[in-house]
């Protein structure tokens, strides 16, 4: 069904593997197009409760946008490339009502680091490496990196990383808050799935509202506190909220239906 992606749905988690290992899974037009489609599938397929993005092979998550597609672009073409990617992939991942986690299994550079940062959180293998090396190419990040890296690690470190083009390893990324967990490569997917299995036991509508409200904390033009008040109120009209509170009071485990 996809040419550049592998997909595998098990226990409600769709594992999406970007599959161009000979090019270190670089994001060319086809990958961006198919990532947009797979995110639509994640939104619309009721059997999918969560997703993991990862890269094929043992070397790279994604080594960046495909540099070979940059050579013919002018200013308008560059802006259009960035806008299309942000609208169809990166922002759509961030705003997904279902959790999407990046399992970073090697190089996450440029657009790869940006792809990981657009996910709701990140896990990494011990060999993972992160960086925004665009200034080496006379470029800046274009898939949201200047904004999301600053949100995740703070202004000073984001400035240094983007100005030096330095790569950092998984442990430093964890210390900076860029990734939540670091595991041996062989355990990366299974441990990430375990976290998602835990999330699957919670009320899905409440999970989607957490995503919406937490995303608001990073937006200058929206009032996250007001959104939280609204979404909190909305939870009271869900069956799952009645079930969750009743189950607690009856000292039993809640069974959520996503309604
Ligand atoms: N775009 C296009 N092709 C890429 C790529 C990218 N971002 N990153 C890697 N590749 C290709 C290489 O050109 C090479 O292709 P080839 O075998 O046809 O020559 C193949 O992937 C393997 O990469 P290679 O550079 O040989 O591996 P390496 O182990 O020596 O180095 C990296 C690994 C990640 C350090 C190096 O590939 C690199 O610096 N990539 C670019 C990173 C970057 O600047 N990303 C931001 C883009 S905006």
Task: Sum up the structure in keywords.
single chain; 259 residues; 2-enoyl-CoA Hydratase, Chain A, domain 1; Lyase 2-enoyl-coa Hydratase, Chain  A, domain 2; 6-stranded mixed beta sheet; 10 helices; 46% helix; binds coenzyme A
How would you portray this structure in words?
Helix content is 46%, strand content 16%. The protein is α/β, with parallel strands linked by helices and 259 residues long. The protein folds into 2 domains: 5-200, Alpha-Beta Complex (2-enoyl-CoA Hydratase, Chain A, domain 1); 204-249, Lyase 2-enoyl-coa Hydratase, Chain  A, domain 2 (Orthogonal Bundle), CATH 1.10.12. The strands form 2 sheets. A 6-stranded mixed beta sheet has the order 1-2-3-5-7-10, with helices on both faces. A 4-stranded mixed beta sheet has the order 4-6-8-9. Helix 3 packs across helix 4 (145-153), helix 4 packs across helix 5 and helix 8 (204-216) runs antiparallel to helix 9. The radius of gyration is 19 Å and the shape is globular. It binds coenzyme A. The site of coenzyme A has 17 residues, from strand 6.
Question: What does the secondary structure layout of this molecule look like, with pairings?
Answer:
Layout: E1 5-10, E2 13-18, H1 29-44, E3 50-55, E4 60-62, H2 75-94, E5 100-104, E6 107-109, H3 111-118, E7 121-125, E8 129-131, H4 145-153, H5 155-164, E9 168-169, H6 170-176, E10 181-183, H7 188-200, H8 204-216, H9 224-235, H10 239-249
Parallel strand pairs: 2-3, 3-5, 4-6, 5-7, 6-8, 7-10
Antiparallel strand pairs: 1-2, 8-9
């Amino acid at each position: 069904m996809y040419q550049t992606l592998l997909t595998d749905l098990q226990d409600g988690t769709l594992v999406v593997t970007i599959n161009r290992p000979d090019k270190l899974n670089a994001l060319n037009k086809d990958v961006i197009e198919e990532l947009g489609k797979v995110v639509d599938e994640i939104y619309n397929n009721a059997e999918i409760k969560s997703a993991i993005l990862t890269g094929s092979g043992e070397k790279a998550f994604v080594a960046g946008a495909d540099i070979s597609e940059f050579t013919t672009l002018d200013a308008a073409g560059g802006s259009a490339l960035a806008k299309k990617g942000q609208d169809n992939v990166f922002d759509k991942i961030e705003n997904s009502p279902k959790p999407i986690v990046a399992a970073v299994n090697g190089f996450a550079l440029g657009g790869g680091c940006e792809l990981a940062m657009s996910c709701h959180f990140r896990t990494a293998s011990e060999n993972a490496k992160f960086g925004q090396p665009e200034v080496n190419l006379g470029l800046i990040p274009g898939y949201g990196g200047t904004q999301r890296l600053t949100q995740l690690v703070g202004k000073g470190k984001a400035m240094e990383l983007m100005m030096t083009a330095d790569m950092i390893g998984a442990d430093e990324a964890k210390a900076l808050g860029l990734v939540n967990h670091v595991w041996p490569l062989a355990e990366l997917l299974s441990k990430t799935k375990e976290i998602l299995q835990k999330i699957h036991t919670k009320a899905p509508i409440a999970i989607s509202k957490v995503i919406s409200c937490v995303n608001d904390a990073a937006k200058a033009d929206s009032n996250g506190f007001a959104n939280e008040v609204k979404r909190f109120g909305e939870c009271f009209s869900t069956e799952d909220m009645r079930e969750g509170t009743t189950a607690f009071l009856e000292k039993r485990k809640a069974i959520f239906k996503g309604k």
